Amino acid sequence: MTDTRRRVKVYTLNEDRQWDDRGTGHVSSGYVERLKGMSLLVRAESDGSLLLESKINPNTAYQKQQDTLIVWSEAENYDLALSFQEKAGCDEIWEKICQVQGKDPSVDITQDLVDESEEERFDDMSSPGLELPSCELSRLEEIAELVASSLPSPLRREKLALALENEGYIKKLLELFHVCEDLENIEGLHHLYEIIKGIFLLNRTALFEVMFSEECIMDVIGCLEYDPALSQPRKHREFLTKTAKFKEVIPISDPELKQKIHQTYRVQYIQDMVLPTPSVFEENMLSTLHSFIFFNKVEIVGMLQEDEKFLTDLFAQLTDESTDEEKRQELVNFLKEFCAFSQTLQPQNRDAFFKTLSNMGILPALEVILGMDDTQVRSAATDIFSYLVEYNPSMVREFVMQEAQQNDDDILLINLIIEHMICDTDPELGGAVQLMGLLRTLVDPENMLATANKTEKTEFLGFFYKHCMHVLTAPLLANTTEEKPSKDDFQTAQLLALVLELLTFCVEHHTYHIKNYIINKDILRRVLVLMASKHAFLALCALRFMRKIIGLKDEFYNRYIMKSFLFEPVVKAFLNNGSRYNLMNSAVLEMFEFIRVEDIKSLTAHVIENYWKALEDVDYVQTFKGLKLRFEQQRERQDNPKLDSMRSILRNHRYRRDARTLEDEEEMWFNTDEDDMDDGEAVVSPSDKCKNDDDIMDPISKFMERKKLKESEEKEALLKTNLSGRQSPSFKLSLSSGTKTNLTSQSPTANLPGSPGSPGSPGSVPKHTSPTAAITTKGGLVGLVDYPDDDEDDDEDEEKEDTLPLSKKAKFES
């Protein structure tokens, strides 16, 4: 794999002067036959596709920025950039570009000073300043050429800017503008356009302060109306003086503040509407213009914030019932723009700004505004509310919890937001989508605070589910009273999809609050009614909600699903979908596949027991057959709970000539405690108890030897038994003893694992034992034990108790 040095992101500049990310890949350089030259190639790291193929043109100006960025322009309106992960990779590609263009890799712009001779460079370095032509009508073309030729060189730009500042040249140029306009000298006006545009690109704050002063700014805008590329001049000044009106919703007494507002509006207009869209290089040259606007906005917000009388009047009029609708709309629009300006503030200043608004009572004011009928006012109020929620959701949560102690649920701020979301008249529900996003931010535990004294998550979610959740689910519950949605038009479906999206978010993040609500209100059953909707996106939203619940693998949810048979609408929708290979088909299959893979036993059993007949014919995937197999394995384990462990014990520690499977009675024997032994259990006689360890272990070791020799025979016997099926509990037990007695027993416990009569068990008669063997049959058990003193019946019980642990241990070891 290519190393990370050559890892890059490819960007292109869009019409809005924003960089679009075209993908991540690895860059290389090489000769491309089709392009007839050395080229830059970027292949995507995901699939190896070609993201970029660009010939290194000898005349293209490449610019290296910030050590990891190379920028260039392919065509007039097509700018490209490569952003490198590592500086070393950027340096390598930069060297390749400079090599093709014959430049020194130490430069940052490959075409800088490319048209200047050595003599001109020497003049630039040695001359103290730049001498401007006299500001006359006949020399406008000469001035325009001088400005244009100075822009490529940082040194010449600096000297030109100083010359313009020192000689008051801009005001002289604007005087010529009036002369040209009076004489209708279109050629002169075109030259002035180029000159003023070039001065903007000099990127000097001192020049901007002159150009944007009250006496000059309208003339500057006038110069920019005469673009040579246009057949008719634009009418920017007419728009600014006649169409655009400045409204003082609250009178501003400070003249400096008023002038600053006018100036900022006009400069913003110049940036957005008057100046042509700059290329990537000119974009960098206009950074000071952006900064000028930015700091103006900061000053405006600061001056308004400090004027307490202004803000007090603003909120008083906003909440005053006697304020007429038009005036209130203007007040709300002003407040919205005021908040938008605040986004330019540094975090510390923004904190102070929103704290000021909060102290002034912005949330109660918004509550009043949101309760009004005017849709435009409500829309602006929603935008203001979004600024507050995005900045500090905890502040909003604290307010609504405090007001809940005084007001009814119907007029709570959050419930007003939910109602506006539900009642959005926009066919595309644009406002509802915005409000849903705000609600999600408010109920997101990730941004909730936890302090030593209280936990915001616990308090707010308790409040939300008590006072607000019923308002959110009201349209869902109202529309799902029957087997099908009572209203199934597009707008209702969109609204319900939004509600389901928020509920799904709650399932994922709210644990027990939403669990209690869903189970107590039977929400999932109502949601699954929407599976019958004619709108596929709504049916999928309902399915996604159920899938999120099943994904939690919570048995409380599982029992609720099984008790209410909530898979029925899902199976019905799946079958109604037929053989169509679509998103519904895939989503349902994925949900059942999740149950199978995660082995959710309760749901597996429920699905197979209730829906197998409907699903058994689905054979194009193995999901349902896999579920059936899981179910059968689960049932087998329930019937034989210790089957796996017993098989392991039998395989390792027990010799069976017939290799039969374990019986229930044998399992009971393994579970029997020493204290629960019946009198019929075979016991070891006192003489056996006195034998040394070697005597006891001798038959075991011999048995193990025999076992190894007969291992192959045992495998064959196991194979035959598995093929013939499970044997009957009735079987024959063959005893190899001195008497060579064959016993036939109908008791299933006669051949217990390691029982005294089994070959090789400690109770079997070893080879050195006398040929006389006693067969004890008590309680239906058959045992073969060596009793040398049969007449000592009085000590039998005591000896039995003492030897049981040894006997049982020997049985397990065998």
Which structural class do you get from the secondary structure elements? Answer: alpha+beta
Radius of gyration: 45 Å
Strand-residue proportion: 5-15%
| End-to-end C-alpha gap | 59 Å
Q: Give the strand order, joined by hyphens, for the main sheet.
A: 4-3-2-1-7-6-5
- Number of distinct beta strands: 11
Extract low-pLDDT stretches: 113-127, 653-697, 717-814
What multimeric state do the chains show? single chain
Helix content: 55-70%
Task: Write a structural description.
One of its GO terms (molecular function) is protein phosphatase activator activity. It comes from Erinaceus europaeus. With 814 residues, this protein is an alpha+beta fold. Among the domains are: 98 residues, PH-domain like, CATH 2.30.29.30; 157 residues; 105 residues, no CATH class; 76 residues, no CATH class. It is globular and about 105 Å long.
Summarize the structure.
The protein has 814 residues and is an alpha+beta fold. Among the domains are: 4-101, Roll (PH-domain like), CATH 2.30.29.30; 139-295; 307-411, no CATH class; 565-640, no CATH class. The strands form three sheets. Strands 4-3-2-1-7-6-5 form a seven-stranded antiparallel beta sheet, covered by helices on one side. It has a two-stranded antiparallel ribbon with strand order 8-9. The protein has a two-stranded antiparallel sheet with strand order 10-11.
List the helices and strands and how they pair.
Blueprint: E1 7-13, E2 19-32, E3 37-44, E4 50-55, E5 63-65, E6 69-75, E7 78-84, H1 87-101, H2 118-126, H3 140-150, H4 154-166, H5 169-183, H6 186-200, H7 205-211, H8 217-223, H9 236-243, H10 255-274, H11 280-285, H12 287-306, H13 308-319, H14 325-342, H15 347-360, H16 362-370, H17 375-391, H18 393-403, H19 413-422, H20 430-442, H21 456-467, H22 469-479, H23 490-509, H24 512-521, H25 523-528, H26 536-551, H27 555-563, H28 568-577, H29 583-597, H30 601-615, H31 623-639, H32 643-653, H33 664-671, H34 686-689, H35 693-709, H36 711-724, E8 731-734, E9 742-745, E10 774-778, E11 781-785, H37 796-813
Antiparallel strand pairs: 1-2, 1-7, 2-3, 3-4, 5-6, 6-7, 8-9, 10-11
Helix pairs in contact: 3-6, 5-6, 10-12, 14-17, 16-17, 16-19, 17-18, 17-20, 19-20, 20-23, 23-26, 26-29, 29-31, 30-31
